[in-house]
Structure formats: C-alpha cells, structure tokens
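As noted in the main text, all predictions were made from sequence alone. Below is one such record, for CMP deaminase.
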Amino acid sequence: MRKDWDTYFMDIAHMVSTRSRCPRRHVGSVLVQGKKLLGTAYNGAPMGVPDCSEAGCMISEEVELVVSGGIETMVKKQRCIRTIHAEQNLLLFTDRADREGSTVYVTDEPCWTCANMLANSGIIEVVYHRAYPKDTRKVHEMMTQKGIVFRQLQAYEPPQQTVVID
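Prediction:
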C-alpha cells in the first residue's frame, strides 16, 4: 500500500535522525515545499567539535515558573547545550527563499528556542511525531499566534530500522 505524504516525509525525518550521535535523543527534520524535499538535518555538535558520544553531554539546568489553572509551579528542565538541534541545523543549511511557505517535518515537537526560530523562518506548517511536554503549552500558543499550522502525527509508527533505544 502506498504511504500518504505525511508518513513518507516523517519516515525520511526518522531516517535522518539515525545520523545523530546524541546519546539522549535522536532528532531529524526535513524541509518540504509542496511535495518537494528541500533539505534535511539532525541534532549534533558543531562540525569539527567532539560530540556528546565522544565528550559527554553538556547539561544545563533551568527552572521555569509555569502557571496552569491559576496555580504556579516551578518546573526543572535539563537541556544539552553541546548539541545544535535538528531544526536549527535545518535553518542554517537551507535558504530563506526555499523556506517561504514550506512545511517542516520533525521527529520531535520543537523546544521553545527552535519554535521561535521556526516562527521567524518563513515556514507555514510544522508536523512532528513525538511530544516534548516541557515546552508544549507555550509553543502551541505561539504557533497559533503566528498562524503556523502545528500538528502531531499521533497514529504514526516510525520505520523499525530508525528506532533508537537509549
């Protein structure tokens, strides 16, 4: 049976993620204009710099005040700052003209920083597979404010050869 376009491009994003050497999470992204693939990227250290598998993760801890239902809660977040995220690499290695009106398929819901960058990149849609609950509320709000279609492929199953067990 022939795959639909969402599945096809998300499969490619998952395949791209297999290039990542991050021990915490493998993330891949692809840029698509209509049905034309314009670029791919994955998360990792800058070129020529030891990556997390060689030098270890560089973890930064942050605390954020989250207000939900009128209740304030302090939420602790840990992020690896050695790694350039897949979405950031995608924006670095594609042209603005190609991004105008395009869709980004990414294996994981973008973090706040990547969502901000995508919101200013000219894209009109973000399609992701795995949720990233640490930033989801504010990312969804911002994407709605920007008029960017932001959707999760819920019933999607990645190709078996791309599943990385951490």
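The beta strands are 28-33, 36-42, 59-68, 71-80, 103-108, 125-130, 149-152. The chain has a mean pLDDT of 92. These features were considered when defining construct boundaries for the mutagenesis experiments described in Section 2.9.
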